Predict the 3D structure of the following.
Amino acid sequence: MDRLDKYIKMVENRLYDIFPAEEPDHAEVIRAAKYSLSAGGKRIRPVLTLAFCEMCGGKPEKALDAACAIEYMHTYSLIHDDLPCMDDDDLRRGKPSCHKAFGEATALLAGDALAILPFEMLASSLEISPSAAVKCIRALSHLCGMDGMIGGQQTDTAYAGKELSGETLIGMYSRKTSALIKAACLCGVYCAESPDEERYAALAEEYAEDLGLAFQIIDDILDVTSSAEVLGKPVGVDEKLDKHTYVRTFGLGRAEDAAGEYTRKAVEALKGFPDSEFVKNITMLLLSRKK
Amino acid sequence: MDRLDKYIKMVENRLYDIFPAEEPDHAEVIRAAKYSLSAGGKRIRPVLTLAFCEMCGGKPEKALDAACAIEYMHTYSLIHDDLPCMDDDDLRRGKPSCHKAFGEATALLAGDALAILPFEMLASSLEISPSAAVKCIRALSHLCGMDGMIGGQQTDTAYAGKELSGETLIGMYSRKTSALIKAACLCGVYCAESPDEERYAALAEEYAEDLGLAFQIIDDILDVTSSAEVLGKPVGVDEKLDKHTYVRTFGLGRAEDAAGEYTRKAVEALKGFPDSEFVKNITMLLLSRKK
């Protein structure tokens, strides 16, 4: 898809502009943050930001800084997730994880920096009004906070090896995965500054909730059906860490059904937008992804 | 000082309002964040935010959300600093540090949450315009980022046990300590939304730079001259971790002179404000503090 490639290039060309010069006395933390940012992610979330902006009638350029903000936040969460006190992962996208490459202290600080950088990026954007920036910042910070992504991580950590209901599992997925995708789509909507913003924001939240659940369930499926070579990270990790997953709770068959069903519901929510073909295509691509 | 007490009470009464309900599946991270926030800090930074707002002609209430934002950021930095991969401190303000009380994973997540919460607080404030909120967010995120507080932490970690020049030491203190104090004072200025904002912001930066250096040097002095009982944390830590401090680099006598000199310069910068008596008193109080 040309448009997908174009969006990814836009993001990757902009991602490092805000980085300070690598002065020798604190260059390592800057290098560590860049290392993890450039480790070849799929850039799904920032692409959604650009796509939602365009779908709401804004030029994608208006949402480019917001898109980078989302990718910083995503990368921070991966760096801290991989730390020894969390999932203790040595590999990420086929390369040594940040703390393996730079040591734990620098990885911790690089993650911290990438959790704060989104707000500098949004507050410095020349493309959007202060009022749009504030809306993006409010959504992103809330959705990534204690009642969002971080809350989901807490549940994930706290319940490893313990009993957990299907309902709590879905709640955890909603926080852990849907929340940041929701922030990505909402930022796109807010950057467009459309008069229909309120209606679009509600649809974006619906879409992102379901896409996030589908996305996480597919992750669970790949953890048991794929190989380390294809995934670029070890497989069977969930079982090893005794983590709750949809597959372990409901079985592979029901997991595949659920991934399809959540994807279908996500696509349904897109019908409220004038031209959603591109986002629909990405959504279907994610359903059939192999890594 | 009645006004100091009044400001501290204002902050402490507002600090927890933004916290989500403690739902069982992720309550621990919320409790851990509250635990560290309530561990009895001096609240110097948020008090400066309120005081600078008032000094620039704004009601202190206008800057209350910003003041809380600063205290969240400060507390996040303490939680992550204490982690085993950083300074590995078991005590903070006379109580077990966050990871000792809640475990490493939860402490990491609580720190992350408190690094993001300042931006939700600022972006949700009903007291200031979106434009003032954006200015506060830009200053805070930049000053705490890779070229600010986090960069200073990186230098601190990277140079432990290695040769470091006096100039690099001061640069590190400026990032590690002055940067957040600068953000605290600037947020106060921006929340006042005064027509003289630009001039006030420049003075606030001057003041905060010098106060931060004095503050950090006094910390170094107390680490060698005080006791664990008075400080509420172990003493002699800098030596144990082989960290660079002003005292270790220049000796105790020169450190005491420098603390006095930076304090004098900080007070000098205050003369550009209409009524700076209160901030001057706090500044002198900090010079003579025993913990």
About this structure: Chain A has one domain: 2-287. The radius of gyration of chain A is 18 Å. DSSP finds 15 helices and two strands in chain A. The first strand of chain A starts at residue 91 and ends at 92.
